[in-house]
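Collaborator request, handled under Task 6.
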Amino acid sequence: MSYDLMVFDPESAPRERAAFLEWYQQSPFEDDSDIFNDPSVCSDNLRNWYQAIVGEYPDYNGDDFDDDKVEEVGDRATGYAIGPSAIYADFRWQAAEAAYDTVRRLAVEHQVGFYDVSGDEGDGEIYFPGHELREPSQGQWRQISADFQTGDLSKYMPEPEPPKRRWWDIFRRDK
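Structure tokens returned to the collaborator:
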């Protein structure tokens, strides 16, 4: 389970919401066999966004990721799926709030689109360069992120089932 965001080439994506969501569903990120990990396959703006974001949220699948620094990187380690027209990023829940702000800021800076894939307000934010950014999402995902930061994950864990009794247990005495 991760907090997922996507940036995209605004020239490749339809601007009408329903068409955009259909385009997203047909993206290369739905089938692992089509996922690319090479930023050279995408536009200059997407590549520049990627170079900026991995400075703050290193790509744990990338060639430059140093396994010896896993502890140092911690919750900032991020998975990226890179395609010709979009980059999909899956962030750890502990990093979700800061990542959301960073991805949005860098999307504006590098003139790429932004889609809040994990947005839980019924209408995940879709941003195109030149449009005004919406107010930052205040969705339930912020509480999930806060819970992961504090380590209070009890509400996300199912209650353990009581042990099943076997028929011969009726002959055992409780001590």
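The cover message to the collaborator said: "The mean pLDDT is 82. The beta strands are 3-8, 79-82, 86-91, 113-115, 126-127. Please let us know whether this matches your experimental observations."
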